Structures are given as C-alpha cells and as structure tokens.
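User: Please predict the structure of the protein below. I'd like the answer in structure-token form so I can feed it into my own downstream comparison script.

Assistant: Understood. Taking the following sequence of 140 residues as input:
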Amino acid sequence: SGLALDSFRALPIPETRGLITWRIGEQGFDMMLSGQVPGELGQALKSSNAAVAEALKGVELWAVHPGGRTILDAVEEGLGLPKEALAASRAVLGEFGNTSSSTVMFVLQRLMMQSHKGARGCAMSFGPGLTAETMRFTAA
C-alpha cells in the first residue's frame, strides 16, 4: 500500500524570480510572497510547454499544494482541470489551512486512502524562483 514514486521535475517559470523569496533574517527565515504568484502560475501552466505537458501526461490524481484558494484556482484553470480534480487539496485547505510546504503531505495522505491501485498522480508544490516542483507517483 502507499505510493510508488516515479519521477521528479522542477519547472521554473521564466521572469518570476522575485515573486517568492526566502532570506535569512534575525529571527530565522523571512519569506516574501507576491500577490502576483497565482496569476503568473496560472498563465505559465496555461501556456504549457513540452516539459509541463510531459510531467502531467496520464495523471488521474492531483495533490496540489493548497497554498490558498487563489493558487488552487490558478492551477485548476491553467491546466484545464475539472472542479473535482483538486477536491483533496481544497478539503485539506479548509481543514488545516496553509501550513507551507508540508500541506501537500496531507493531500497525498487523502489520495492514498481514496485511490485505486495503479492510479497515476502528480504532486505539485511551488517555491522560490517561481518554480513548480512536481512528483509523479503511482498508487500501490
């Protein structure tokens, strides 16, 4: 049971370097998150280059980091996904809020409990750069 990890890919989004930044401050890490992130992310996914298309080929299960409603809306619209595709991400956002990068682990847990053996999926989180980090997986 669980998930078999198939592949990983970082998809940098050009000309978005300053939209998410981390700096070491006096109290630890300081994060800056621009309000432009959802729009740029949605636009980049909509214009799908070959790397994005390959990373998402054959995906049934979506574990998108629930960084907020606007992030989920941007991914859904950018990839042309049906509303139910991000149901697990939206449920986790509603239950736990955005707990940074770790939130996608809660989404993966839900998908493991709901999926059938052999279902192919993609986990997606976003970070500095702006970069979409993807992990392809198969339900075991």
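That's the full token string. Strands lie at 3-12, 20-25, 28-33, 61-64, 120-127, 131-139.
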